[in-house]
Design brief:
By secondary structure, this protein is mainly alpha-helical. The protein has one domain. The protein is built from twelve helices and no strands. Helix 3 packs antiparallel against helix 11, helix 5 runs antiparallel to helix 6 and helix 6 runs antiparallel to helix 8. The protein is elongated, with a radius of gyration of 18 Å. 31% of the residues are buried.
């Protein structure tokens, strides 16, 4: 039960982190921009994974955290789902900041690589469970190669990797996932709506772009 209590404590810390005070802080530097992308990716990935597990397992949910094998599976799933969320959120945010000529094609690619790497570093301890960092980096690089940044900025959907990854890696029986897929994927897609709204309310695109150019 100690492990479950730690998970609940972590949830309370996350809730405090994303309280009103945090929401009021502007995103006007590369550092605050990168941290927002990383922190929100971690938040939404854990919230939706644990929510899915709790809903599916019902009253068995607390006791499952006494099973070391289950805990290991959750940690691996958490890492892969975070990496997918980080990929989606990075592309969305970089396309938004770089739109309307604020950043060139090469600069968007550079900022995307920087933001993605920053997110992996910030969460290195938790991601080590999966041992797949190079796999995530390679997948992200392949994803942005030839990406139409302007299409993304104009509203093209990039939040398609994380929902499918949530279903793929959640430690739930495959036969149950077949029934859950649509509901679970839509739940994560809806969660991104609030994240994007929060981002748009706080971001200073010109300031982030200018700060990035000053650093390169």
């Amino acid at each position: 039960m100690a492990i479950l209590e730690k998970a609940q404590q972590a949830g309370r810390v996350l809730a405090a982190l994303f309280g009103l005070k945090a929401r009021s802080q502007p995103l006007d530097t590369v550092a605050t921009f990168e941290h927002f992308v990383s922190a929100r990716s971690a938040f939404v990935s854990q919230k939706k994974l644990y929510g899915y597990l709790k809903t599916r397992m019902g009253t068995r949910y607390p006791s499952m955290f006494e099973d070391d094998q289950f805990i290991a599976s959750v940690n691996i799933a958490k890492a892969h789902i975070f990496a997918a969320c980080l990929s989606d959120m990075t592309i969305f945010a970089v396309a938004d900041v770089g739109a309307q000529g604020r950043l060139s094609r090469d600069e968007k690619d550079m900022l995307a690589h920087r933001c993605h790497s920053s997110g992996l570093r910030e969460n290195a301890e938790q991601l080590a469970h999966a041992g797949a960092e190079q796999e995530w980096r390679s997948a992200f690089e392949a994803r942005i190669e030839g990406l139409h940044w302007d299409n993304v900025a104009a509203g093209g959907n990039v939040f398609d990797t994380s929902p499918s990854t949530l279903v793929e890696w959640a430690p739930i029986a495959p036969q149950l996932k077949a029934y859950d897929r649509e509901i679970v994927e839509n739940s994560l897609k809806f969660a991104w709506i609030e994240i994007r709204r929060d981002y748009r309310n706080r971001v200073d695109r010109e300031a982030v772009a200018a700060d990035f150019r000053n650093r390169t």
